Amino acid sequence: MSNSDSLLQQYTIGWIGAGRMGYPMAKRLLEAGCDVSIYNRTRSKAEPLEELGGKVVDNPSELGDRDIVFTMVSTSDDLVAVTFGANGLLTGDATPKLLVECSSVSEGASAQVRSQAAELGVDMLASPVSGNGKVVKSGKLTIVSSGPRSAFDIAEPYLNAIGRGVTYVGEGELARMVKICHNLLLGVYTQSLAEITVLAEKGGVSRNAFLDFINNSVMGAMFSRYKTPTFVNLDMTPTFTPELLRKDLDLGLKAGEELGVPLPVTQLTRDMVQSTIDAGHSGRDFAVLLEEQAKASGLELKPENVEVSDGL
Fold it and tell me: Which pLDDT tens digit goes with each residue over 241-273?
């Protein structure tokens, strides 16, 4: 047994949330040999993890005897509910040593849960992630973490097993600020990529050729490569929806207002995302920004039906 393997078997793990992100993240811990028990609101979605050795429970409170519990839920209200709501993780007689919160939630909700957990002697790390389900499966998820340094040292091997690396940024809710800033860039980048791709196509350049050039230039990025198949072939199966992006843009704009930082480009992007939602694109991938840009430009988009790599 390697040293890393022994570290991963040092603590028992609880996992709350087996959705598009939580399921493959929990699966990576199971594949790394961790002892993992899982709760998901819809039990059937978590049950396939039993084939890898996971144990599925009926309530978050049943994970109270685990050493470390990870949460990956959709909203701030969901986080409060699974920790301190009815049958919540921290409402029973037993509580974990450490809570590792990986969702994209508000600083306020995160701080509230952190404070209440501390009263019970439970440390908490805010550890939001960058990526989506496919990125998790490819082992390229990145994570930012904040909270007590001693707690981070305990959680680091598990966070590294989930993704390709974790960055510790300090105490408290600093990781939330990093994630908010990250998702502002995500929104602005995607809107800008949509605009220039439509401009290039209206000028006579195929989307495939244009994005191939961008991806091989200094302006290329893992994200532009990952989104190229979607932009080229128009498969809008959701990895991250316009509604979730709008939520994060709103969080960023609120932080900017509170800190006195003007965010005019972010505000404009938020308006474009809202227009996309109003146009009926709810529940689709947020790359539908490309379709709205094309419509505004008088361009009829068609799938190019070209096999292109997503870089993962």
Answer: 999 899 889 989 999 999 999 999 999 999 999
Report the alpha-carbon distance of residue 289 to residue 139 in Å, rounded. Answer: 27
User: Do 155 and 60 lie in a common domain?
Assistant: yes
Query: Which of 155, 172, 189 is the last residue before a domain boundary?
Result: 172
Total of domains in the chain:
2
pLDDT of residue 84: 96
pTM: 0.85
Q: Report the pLDDT value the prediction gives residue 1, as an integer from 0 to 100.
A: 42
Determine the pLDDT at residue 75. 87
Strand partners, 37: 14, 55
Is residue 29 domain-shared with residue 83, that is, in the same domain? yes
The reply to whether 161 falls in a domain is yes
Q: Looking at residue 4, what is its pLDDT?
A: 54
Smallest CA-to-CA distance from 9 within 74, 53, 73, 40 is with 53
109 shares its domain with 218: no
Domain extent, residue 237, equals 177-296
What residues in the chain have per-residue pLDDT under 70? 1-6
In the block, tokens 């598009």 appear at 20
Asked if residue 307 belongs to a domain, the reply is: no
Q: Shortest CA distance to 101 belongs to which of 114, 92, 91? A: 114
Residue-level pLDDT at 8? 85
In a domain, 304, yes or no: no
Q: Are residues 182 and 102 in the same domain?
A: no
End-to-end Cα spacing for the chain = 29
| Chain center to CA of 175 | 13
Return the residue matching tokens 């790394």: 32
Report the SS3 class of residue 60: helix
Residues 47 and 161 in one domain: yes
Mean pLDDT score of the chain: 94
- In which residue are the tokens 């919160």 written? 101
